[in-house]
Amino acid sequence: MSKINEMFAKGMWSEQVNVRDFVQKNITPYDGDGSFLCGPTERTTKLWDICCEAIKEEMANNGVRSIDTETVSTIVSHDAGYIQKDLELIVGLQTDELLKRAMKPYGGIAVVEKACSEQGLEVSDRVKDIFRNYAKTHNDGVFDVYTEEIRKYRSLGFLTGLPDNYARGRIIGDYRRLALYGIDRLVEAKKADLVNLTGPMSDEKIRLREEVAEQIKALVHIKELGAKYGLDLSRPAESAQEAVQWVYMAYLSAVKEQDGAAMSLGNVSSFLDIYVEYDLANGHITEELAQEFIDQFVMKLRVVRHLRMNAYNEIFAGDPTWVTEAIGGRLLDGRHKITKTSYRFLQTLYNLGPSPEPNMTVLWSQNLPENFKKFCAQVSIDTSSIQYENDDLMTGTRNSDDYGIACCVSFQEIGKHIQFFGARTNLAKTLLLAVNGGRCEMSGKTIVEGIPALKSDTLDFDEVMANYKLAMKDVARVYNESMNIIHYMHDKYYYEKSQMAFVDTNPRVNLAYGMAGLSIVADSLSAIKHAKVTVVRNEEGLSTDFKIEGDFPCYGNDDDRVDSLAVDISNNFNQLLCGLDTYKNAEPTMSILTITSNVVYGLKTGATPDGRAQGVPFAPGANPMHGRDKNGAIASLNSVAKLDYKNALDGISNTFSIIPKSLGADADIRRNNLVTMMDAYFSKEAHHLNVNVLNRELLEDAMENPQEYPQLTIRVSGYAVNFVRLTREQQLEVISRSFHSNM
Amino acid sequence: MLRVHSFESLGTYDGPGIRLVVFLQGCNFKCLYCANADTIELKGGKETSVDEIVSMAQNQRPFFGKNGGLTFSGGEPLVQAKQLIPVVKALKAEGFHICIDTNGSIFNAEVKEVMQYTDIVLMDIKHMNTEQHKLLTGQTNEKTLAFIQYLQELSKPVWLRYVLVPGYSDQADHLHQLGQHFKDFNNIEKLEIQPYHELGAHKYEHLGWEYQLKGVKANTPEQLATAYGILKEYFKEVVIN
What we know:
The complex is a heterodimer of chains A (743) and B (241). Chain A is of the alpha/beta class and 743 residues long. Chain A has 2 domains: 2-147 and 172-409, Anaerobic Ribonucleotide-triphosphate Reductase Large Chain, CATH 3.20.70.20; 421-652, no CATH class. In chain A, 45% of the residues lie in helices and 12% in strands. Chain A contains 26 helices and 19 strands. In chain A, the strands form 6 sheets. In chain A, strands 3, 9, 10, 11, 14 and 15 form a 6-stranded mixed beta sheet that branches. Chain A has a 5-stranded mixed beta sheet with strand order 4-5-6-17-16. A two-stranded parallel ribbon of chain A has the order 1-2. In chain A, strand 18 and strand 19 (719-722) form a beta hairpin. The longest helix of chain A has 33 residues, at 461-493. Chain B has one domain: Aldolase class I (TIM Barrel, Alpha-Beta Barrel). Chain B is built from 8 helices and 9 strands. A 9-stranded mixed beta sheet of chain B has the order 3-1-2-4-5-6-7-8-9, covered by helices on one side. In chain B, strand 5 (98-102), helix 3 (109-116) and strand 6 (120-124) form a beta-alpha-beta unit. The longest helix of chain B is centred in the N-terminal third of the chain and has 15 residues, at 50-64. Chain B is globular, with a radius of gyration of 17 Å. The chains are: A alpha/beta (743), B alpha/beta (241).
């Protein structure tokens, strides 16, 4: 560690594993603008061109360039792989070839077999033999234990997208630790933890000891991985290039071993800046080279790929990887965390073109420097690739300034906290249980017992609410059961040792539940309360349609009469979830987020009392339903801002799309107005905002002529996606969304 | 109670900054090119109280930033000048910035009182020539010119707005006349040229009216540049919206 101690200011980090302290003691906050930034080098451009060609091949080949059907992917299963070795400053691929996808059968062998066969390929006999006959998988475990009830909920569309046939993801390793400490020191620290895990062997202790033992094995493998690429990962990084490389190697080992839906990066930009500042100050590198390290790092993040079934792609559209990097925010001591590397990361959107990955998330604080705020607004206007979250709200509520965002919107304290992901439940379909005596409106099957039939087909608000509360209670119960099963099994059969090696032993865990259909529920209850709603039933007595007489306020118009219903239902459901026992005593949290499951859930949900027809997609996340926000963009933002983050700690996703002209008459005005809007929105304790600044016509053109728009990025619920990789249905759904236009 | 047609919470072309635009029901003109023809009918609109509007403004206040606020438009907002008085008075008491977007043809004691609580006026002057004005709007322009004179005396900030309709309001000599008349009005901060568009034409069908300007095309860049060139000689700032 001696060289590091000469380079940087000492602190607690010098004696113990504490990256936050290192950042706090050594960060150089930057107040200036982006005029120092450099464009891409020739080398970077050449390398990215090769990647773009490979991506074109991928798209032309049913979305998959190639698959390794022989090897079970582990940290050390593949030889070194390069894009073009003489051009690469930051090295490492998941397999031996660019965009080649690897098998990770511990999630489930049937899943892997299907993913291969859908591409016209077959898993090797050896691997099939192992996983069908000798090794058990997460998927096997979960389905061995799932109750009939849980299976019914899944198949009918009350619980969709659960990580029971794909890896749960949502664990962010503190990959910075590899750079700051090197493998040897980290192994030492984990071994010290083992020494303290002695005494009476309770289940918990045995499990923890095993987890740490696995993590140590992973760390040793990571050193081996480094050796394949000629890197000595046993020691700490000693330069900017090494810091970037080491952080990437830690992340790479995670995506060699696991294929979680969300494999997020953390909060690395402000950390890496410390090394860059040192090298720049000492004349070891130029600004051009500093930017190149970041460009090449980001390039590697952009070519991460996981092997997926088509069914998975329907729910998680556009091949997302959620390599989420949290940029900015503030330290608890009041200083902001904007560094020149914060700018360099955003600059990659210009140097390499727009892209959904890495999923760049600006942690917005009212006190961020104006220069940075304006820069971000311009990046949004130019690329529609970034999202924003309320740093003041999160640091205040969660008491940490060293956090990343897992997946789309979820706060996670780096290295101290992990999440157990739980997708989301269909609360709109649950409302129909209240109207149909506990029966599924489409199949007629009884889902929840004990819900009385309604006294009349003219819906009475209090009666429906009482039934809805009963339905939500049972749905919460079954959801909780499935979550406990999933995470028990995932720990048992597909433990994330490479990621957990970079997390404190026995970290805090959040059980991350979710809900979908909020706007449908709010508008439906509003209709029942303020207008006259009559159920139309079929021969089996199931609702098929709703007749509405009179007006009612819709969510998205800054009208408390309906916005309060949205707040109440989400708070209510969260409270129900919080009351249930959890595996590992994980703390329950909930998100209002759909990803693209708003389309899937819409298909499985019949007509609803708000006038929505059967099969129509829900609005994404916490967004108002398309077309119902009639008072303009700000009224829409105001409605969403009323949702209570304390009852949705896993995140509240809001996607905002606007045509450039509506932001104002010229570039300066547009930038300033966007900054004003974000300051205002977040000042109201709103949590999150995806920002798209584009014309609907552009999207329509991209739909017809995808080859012209290979990098067109658009933000959808909770993430960004390459628009031309969505299915036509998904594209139409995105286009139908409210594009705010005040023209 | 004000009779409101609709709201636009992200108004970026309705005065300075970001504004909550309240479109009132009813207009005393019938401009051939009106893009909001469903606001012309004097009857109708939703009855909205002072409290409701103040409450909306409070909710939106952080979005107004340094120079945003509310704009009353329509239709012709000063048709409801009497009902507007308590609204603008209450809003001003809460410190909101108030803009009125008007055709200037209604000029009476009530309007004068509204002006006391107004920070800036968007003055939609349809045509400098009174006959051409009548052709375009159904009324002559003397009242509008007198009102603008009054605002000059009050030193009330004004942004002139001029819709450039090819063949109807883009005649060079009339544009010069407009410039000549107003060039010494030091309360006029800028002139906004509104390009002509047909986006409101479909509303005429719904109303059962005939759209009179069928076949009139949107301005060419040359037409806009010419108009800009003429007007720039006379006004501090000219913008094309």
